[in-house]
Amino acid sequence: MSRIVSFGAFLLVAFLVLGLTVSGPPSGVDRFVAESLGNGWQDTAGDVASVGSAVLGPVLPVVAALGLLVAAVVVRRRGRPELTGLLLRATLLLAVCRTVSFAKPLFERTRPRVYPDFSFPSGHVVSVASVGFTAAVLCAWLARERLRLVVALSAVAVFLAALCRVLLDVHWLTDVVGATLGVVGLGLMTAAALRLLPARGPTA
């Protein structure tokens, strides 16, 4: 347990340090990636990325949270209070992970192009990473044999969300990296506090 919390704290500190470091002018790496991928945001690639961002964005954790709450009500009616508690704690975990986006005013980073709101961290990537992290934790409890698959699918979803935001030229590379660091770091610490980690296997 202490290792989980320590690693989570390390990632959260890394998130904060990265945010403070990039709050000024963009780094060479950020500029290179933006110039390489972000110039076509008005072309076909941008159209595809817009669709991807609509799906892999803030709507995702809302749908996931509602699904978890409905599932909690259903299993409660079926007389499975332990599973109900697990689903409710997972919903809280998801909500806490999503709050990483609220850190944007701390850094006040500007976007690569004119666009509303601050840039660091990417709210879209935070949303997808929050759902992916919560899904992995639940899978560790309920279907451990599929954990690797769920982690892999979550990683792919986070990557695609990040790629879409960079292609649209509304986020720097470090914005999407920071979003991932923040969610995993805060997620590990919160999951440990909610007694979701380490997972104890299937819940009766």
Mean pLDDT: 95
CATH class: Mainly Alpha
**Which architecture does the CATH hierarchy give at level 2?**
Up-down Bundle
Uncertain stretches? none
Fold and architecture overview:
- Helices cover 71% and strands 0% of the residues.
- The chain has a single domain, classed as Up-down Bundle (Vanadium-containing Chloroperoxidase, domain 1), CATH 1.20.144.
- The two termini are 23 Å apart.
- The model has no long low-confidence stretch (mean pLDDT 95).
- It is globular.
- By secondary structure, it is mainly α.
- α5 packs antiparallel against α7 and α5 packs antiparallel against α9.
- The longest helix has 21 residues, at 147-167.
- It is built from nine helices and no strands.
What topology emerges from the helices and strands here?
Blueprint: H1 2-21, H2 28-37, H3 44-55, H4 59-77, H5 81-98, H6 104-107, H7 123-142, H8 147-167, H9 173-193
